[in-house]
Write a structure and sequence with these properties.
mainly beta, 2 helices
Length: 147
């Protein structure tokens, strides 16, 4: 018996009742930042899809945004996401330089937080402590306290 191999795009079009390929599901994550100690500046918010560079090497984050802090809070939304594992980092960028400021021994000078509100002592949080699942069919809202 001989098999006929069809390109994936054509298979999707054949499977769809309208004759067009089914579009992949896209989801969103809303991030609500609370409990900022300093009302000035902005919230630097980064979305991560893996542990590489987490939590500080921002060039490895899949998306970043800086939003104003209003009355000690900030909110943003990341749209167009596939289901999967994600983590979020946030810091209070008080001087609006888009850099996470530290002192001479490497301790943070600006307030910060991560998803799951993970706060290990004497070290930065790991991706596995901050990770959450974005499931198919469900958008997510997460709240992060920055201290």
């Amino acid at each position: 018996m001989r098999r006929l191999l069809l390109p994936a795009a054509l298979l999707g079009a054949l499977a769809s009742p309208t004759g067009t390929a089914a579009q992949p599901e896209t989801l969103a994550i809303q991030v609500d930042v609370t409990d900022t100690k300093h009302p000035e500046g902005s919230a630097g918010i980064a979305l991560w899809a893996g542990e590489e560079g987490f939590p500080e090497d921002i060039e490895h984050a899949i998306r970043t945004i800086y939003v104003p802090i209003v009355n000690g809070q900030a909110t943003t939304r990341f749209d167009g996401l596939a289901p999967g594992s994600y983590a979020v980092t946030v810091f209070n960028d008080r001087d609006d330089d888009e850099e996470f400021d530290k002192n001479w021994i490497g301790m943070p000078r600006e307030s910060w937080g991560v998803s799951n509100n993970a706060r290990p002592r004497l070290r930065a949080p790991r991706f596995d402590e901050a990770v959450f699942e974005l499931l198919g069919g469900e958008n997510a809202t997460i709240a992060i306290e920055i201290r």
